[in-house]
Amino acid sequence: MTTQQPRLLKRTLLSVALASVGVMGLAGAANAQDDTFKVGFVTFLSGGASGPFGVPAAQGAEIVIDAINEGTLPAPYDSKGVNGLMLESVVVDEAGGPTKQVEEYRNLVQRQNVDAVIGYISSGDCLAIGPVAEEMEMFTIAFDCGTSRLFAELDDPQYMFRTGLDAVADNVGAARYLAETRPDAERIAGIQQNYAWGQDSWQDFTLAMEQLMPEAEIIANQTPQIFQGSYGTEISALQTERPEIIHSSMWGGDMESFVLQANARGLLAQADALLTTGESGLHRFDGQAPNGTILGGRGPFGAFMPDNELSEWFREAYEAEHGTPPSYPASKAAQAILALKYAADNSGAEGVPSSEQLAATLKGAEFPSVSGTVRMDLANGHQAVQPMYYGEYHYEDGEAELRNVRSYPGECVSAPDGYNAQQWIKEGFPGVDCD
Amino acid sequence: MKLERTELSLIGVAIAIAILAQFSPNWLVFTLTLAISTALVVMGVVMLMRAGLVSFGQGLFYCLGGYAVGLGGRFLGITDALVLVGLGVVVTTVVAMILGLLMTRYREIFFAMLSLAFSMILYGILVKSHGLGSTDGFGVVDWTLLGFTPGDGQATTTALMLALVLALAIALFLNRYFKSSIGLACEAIRENEVRVEYMGISHRKVLYINYVLAAAVGSVGGSMTALAAGHVDPTMAYWTISGEFVFIAILGGTGHVAAPFIAALIFTLVRTYAVELAPNAWQMILGIVLLLIILFLPKGIWSLFTRKKGAAS
């Protein structure tokens, strides 16, 4: 009896394992219904990027999707559903790296039969998904990733779109803001996470500074590991260099930790921090960042959203649901969903619009969004052009706000088609239009 | 040369998969390709485990194989998949032959930590390589196979066929290798190194050959992953990926050459369905499943099959 039991257990385990593999292989053939439009939404739900970016983005998307299905969005999105169809979303975790994301993307398209995919915060994931989206001919919108290589490496994109700006715009905008508001600054330092995002951001920023503030000297750059959390050594190293400006592309918890620690150590009393993704900390610093800290929101998102019916609606709806105003990732996710609704509503399709119809409608389109009007003008109509915003953090009586906000039109911060972004900066921004 | 039963069944299963793949949905074909590629790297871990060594740095060879495909296509203009895989094997073998001189001096935790360290060095170098896209990695060129260019929608099936053929060849070879004098010497070294020396076998030599072979097999897995997924990035050398390989090795057990393949397939399928069914808690599901298997099948999934055979005879 005593030997029989484990054997029985093992046999059961084996048969369960084999049966489940078999069932798994056959399942998933269930087709999407004709009266729903199924969209895959890929965002970080675990890992370091989930708290500051992934989850707010998922929440932003959910609010817009619910409102679309109820028909409660402001005009011109006040019709119910997308092209009259109920919008159903399948949320997938972006954690695990590009190879796993390629696998999950294929599963979304072929096993779950989604009609479109929206997602991707990590640049590596975007770069890996681009060619797969083209191969599988699936309408796909990248809502947040910032690499300028996305469309540079994708020959003649048909199905891949990006409704957010790339990191070049962040850093050219940052340099322009400094040139206008701190023209006398001479000693510029930086601190970046040691991975592609930090390296690219610092490269673009220093290139732009050479053009816009040639007098200023780049004196130091620290590159701590991502998610390091403690920045004592880096702060000491920066302090000995006596910078006037500290540029940082650090994001999320890293950015907030750095600001708190640098402030406590007095570094931010001697230098102004310029945080290209600082907007996500606007309502979280609680006065622990000094007034005058320069914050960016990767475009007209989050607290930088211009006042219009859509942004007012979104701000209220998000705050009512989650208790805080939407940060920039939430706005960017909302924008991508609105782009999908715009493309579906205007596709002229009967029933579920095909990827081709969606792509043809969104290509080169101009659609209203929470961030104002979005023009899909770059990369042959696949990349959004929008103004870049920067402002200064001010905290008074328990209220955080942005002051001295300045905007730079899209043509002022984004390279025109046919230019490699770095080449464009080095050549002194040919074709630039800042008025 | 007479084929034994294991070899016949391996060939049979490979042919069956090849035929079934023609009727399977595309995503399953792709997942299967990734599972087979992963299994090859796991096979390297198993080879080391049989000699009593646990490698937490097999990602090093996985990554080298992947980057050889990526860089070979991008900078050397090679498009033939077999040549790219071969390039990966050559590069990896050279690296493993150098590292092996040092690695085979160490055992237990020291071997594990040192292997982890070397793979993290490669990770660090790649992260610092801005020209190679740093952590973002870069895309793999469109590849051909012996002059055949896979058309639209054929690439996934072609990749699976290539992975199947390579995996079958490796599995057949390793099946014999495990039973060869050197393969058995590995197990003897695990049991008692000193005795092996007294029998006149150089344990350094045996471990060295085993280490280099394990590396080469891992490289093939990395190359196949790169060809199938179309993208390489430094995460391939990160220690968590190496940890995953060790985990799958434990999951399958070291009892049989087929065990890593079954374990890798189960791991991949459980993960992909966990991600689909519980986007917010998929790691927990994966963890529980793995925990249960370890609790009830301490010798790995393969022990299910051996037990059955024992009962029948």
From TrEMBL, chain A:
<keyword id="KW-0732">Signal</keyword>
<dbReference type="InterPro" id="IPR051010">
    <property type="entry name" value="BCAA_transport"/>
</dbReference>
<feature type="signal peptide">
    <location>
        <begin position="1"/>
        <end position="32"/>
    </location>
</feature>
<dbReference type="Pfam" id="PF13458">
    <property type="entry name" value="Peripla_BP_6"/>
</dbReference>
<dbReference type="InterPro" id="IPR028082">
    <property type="entry name" value="Peripla_BP_I"/>
</dbReference>
<dbReference type="InterPro" id="IPR028081">
    <property type="entry name" value="Leu-bd"/>
</dbReference>
<comment type="similarity">
    <text>Belongs to the leucine-binding protein family.</text>
</comment>
<protein>
    <submittedName>
        <fullName>ABC transporter substrate-binding protein</fullName>
    </submittedName>
</protein>
<feature type="domain" description="Leucine-binding protein">
    <location>
        <begin position="37"/>
        <end position="393"/>
    </location>
</feature>
From TrEMBL, chain B:
<feature type="transmembrane region" description="Helical">
    <location>
        <begin position="245"/>
        <end position="270"/>
    </location>
</feature>
<keyword id="KW-0812">Transmembrane</keyword>
<feature type="transmembrane region" description="Helical">
    <location>
        <begin position="82"/>
        <end position="102"/>
    </location>
</feature>
<keyword id="KW-1133">Transmembrane helix</keyword>
<feature type="transmembrane region" description="Helical">
    <location>
        <begin position="109"/>
        <end position="126"/>
    </location>
</feature>
<dbReference type="InterPro" id="IPR001851">
    <property type="entry name" value="ABC_transp_permease"/>
</dbReference>
<dbReference type="Pfam" id="PF02653">
    <property type="entry name" value="BPD_transp_2"/>
</dbReference>
<feature type="transmembrane region" description="Helical">
    <location>
        <begin position="60"/>
        <end position="76"/>
    </location>
</feature>
<feature type="transmembrane region" description="Helical">
    <location>
        <begin position="282"/>
        <end position="305"/>
    </location>
</feature>
<feature type="transmembrane region" description="Helical">
    <location>
        <begin position="29"/>
        <end position="48"/>
    </location>
</feature>
<feature type="transmembrane region" description="Helical">
    <location>
        <begin position="155"/>
        <end position="174"/>
    </location>
</feature>
<keyword id="KW-0472">Membrane</keyword>
<dbReference type="InterPro" id="IPR043428">
    <property type="entry name" value="LivM-like"/>
</dbReference>
<keyword id="KW-1003">Cell membrane</keyword>
<feature type="transmembrane region" description="Helical">
    <location>
        <begin position="208"/>
        <end position="230"/>
    </location>
</feature>
<protein>
    <submittedName>
        <fullName>Branched-chain amino acid ABC transporter permease</fullName>
    </submittedName>
</protein>
<feature type="transmembrane region" description="Helical">
    <location>
        <begin position="7"/>
        <end position="23"/>
    </location>
</feature>
